[in-house]
Amino acid sequence: MTDATHALLAPPKVQRSAFKSILLHAVLILCSFGMLYPILWMISGSFRPQEELFGTSSLIPSALDLGGYVRGWSGLQVTFGRFFWNSLVISVLATIGNVVGCSLAAFAFSRLRFAGRNFWFALMLGTLMLPYHVVLIPQYILFLHLGWVNTPLPLIVPKYLATDAFFIFLMVQFFRGIPKELDEAAVMDGCSPFRIYWKIMLPLSLPVLATAAIFSFIWTWDDFFGPLIYLSDINTYTVQLGLRSFVDSTGSSDWTALFAMSNLSLIPVFLFFLFFQRLLIEGIATTGMKR
Amino acid sequence: MALHSEILSKESRPAALRSRGAFGGVLERNAAGYVFLLPWLLGFFGLTLGPALASLYLSFTNYDLLQSPDWVGAANYVRILTDDPKFSAAMQVTFTYVILSVPLKLAFALAVAMAFNRGIKGLTLYRAIFYLPSLLGSSVAIAVLWRQLFASDGLINMALWQLFGFEGPSWISNPDYALYTLVMLSIWQFGSPMIIFLAGLRQIPTDMYEAAQMDGAGKARQFFKITLPLLTPVIFFNGVIQTIEAFKAFTPAFIISEGTGGPINSTLFYTLYLYQEAFGFFRMGYASALAWILVIIISLFTAFSFLGARYWVHYDD
What we know:
By secondary structure, chain A is mostly helical. Chain A is globular and about 70 Å long. Chain A has helices spanning 3-9, 18-46, 67-73, 80-111, 117-128, 133-145, 153-160, 165-175, 180-188, 193-204, 206-222, 225-230, 239-250, 255-287. Chain A folds into 2 domains: 14-65, no CATH class; 80-287, Orthogonal Bundle (MetI-like fold). By secondary structure, chain B is mainly α. Helix content of chain B is 73%, strand content 1%. In chain B, a hairpin with a 7-residue loop joins strand 1 (61-62) and strand 2 (70-71). In chain B, helix 5 packs antiparallel against helix 12, helix 6 (123-136) runs antiparallel to helix 10 and helix 14 packs antiparallel against helix 15. Chain B is globular. The two termini of chain B are 51 Å apart. Classes of the chains: A mainly alpha, B mainly alpha. At the A-B interface, helix 2, helix 4, helix 5, helix 6 and helix 9 of A face helix 2, helix 3, helix 5, helix 6 and helix 7 of B.
């Protein structure tokens, strides 16, 4: 994010003997392989002929068989295509909501002066500590009365109301680092607060907005508890719920298909990992995110 | 008149501008602030404060969503604490999970971070690989994978058979082992505390180690006298965050036990029990009381951690 964090994450170079360094790398490669073995095994398992999955711990299938993907895709009465679409809609809309809602609040907390600002800020910090279980049941009752159960609305609308205080806090920290002279100059030129937010703050805050967006997307995509509570009609299922139903319906009989669909469900998160690894890791190193 | 011009001249200075706030008059400034804060305020009152108060009220009632809440006083709390075997089971499972998984996870995270902090080539790649399970780990897909790994005909038993000729049990359907498979799943995801440790290790000045080496301190002594004390704030932070997360764990237990918390309540995580009461039996009042007890447990834990921290967490200033 900043030069300081780059310096923090850059390793000091140490000289050591060639033998020691080869040994260290051998151990690390072995450990990496061990860490990833279950995932690699799941990937290779999804391409195996159904009868071959058990009885071998090797990673290379005897033949490439896409049957698992075909059986899995339409293994329930609604195809996984539907579940992927639902997950995508919820994740994209929730991510936009988080970024918009939280950045508006963060701008108010870090840049605008108004009566009661510190009071509200303290309350916002207080909500960081509150486990969502205490708001769960009344929220459910509220959304039930609004007729939102079995629609994706309970999973999307709250994000536009900046309910993820963690992201507000993250953005406030970043906004405070942007020189105040910039918006003061803009005020002199007669800029409205909204123009300052839109034309100065947001463009200068792309790293933190991107970090917040990536984590929101991944967390929403992976979320199981929210969809489990609010979505019971199979047409509204997310991928995570679809997988769970698939486990229940196939039991332990068709692991190949189950693995195939599991792999597909991991692809979006994995793509974020590939392309935004640096932002993810810096996000964790500088803010101490939980996962 | 003189006073007036003084105020004017003061007002024209940028410092005065800053202290009075950037935008026009007081009313206008307040209006702008509250316009930007409006979405959050709606969320705060409508989705956080209101529901929190509502669940506090519901926790003193019986409520099944159909009939209006029926006030029962502290009966829910009394029953939970004195006459609810499932609550005791859930507490035991959750505390076992927290006490085993958090220290082991942090130990792995610290050990790997120390290995990475020695200036190895390809750090970025190794770090990414070790972080990956932590990123993917909370998904249903990984819970599904875990179910298969520890099934009677799963990968673990296959490996045990091939390597040692040992025929393992079905780990996930045996009440003696099921919880430990979930502990292992949690430990496997040590990536994010590892990254935080790595950032913490970077901040320890290298000249401290050089000085210690000159004084003849060995590696072990350097670890216990320099690394560990200087890292205590990071250990504390990771410990608190991971413990709170562990108290709230849900998905893996749900998938592995198919929502039952079985076999014989051996994976009945607290949140899973809460879910069953609320959305399985629609005992909303009872579940609200469970939620508030969870809040109390987490708050007590956090308070005691911060109180205890002064005795072992070392801050520079």
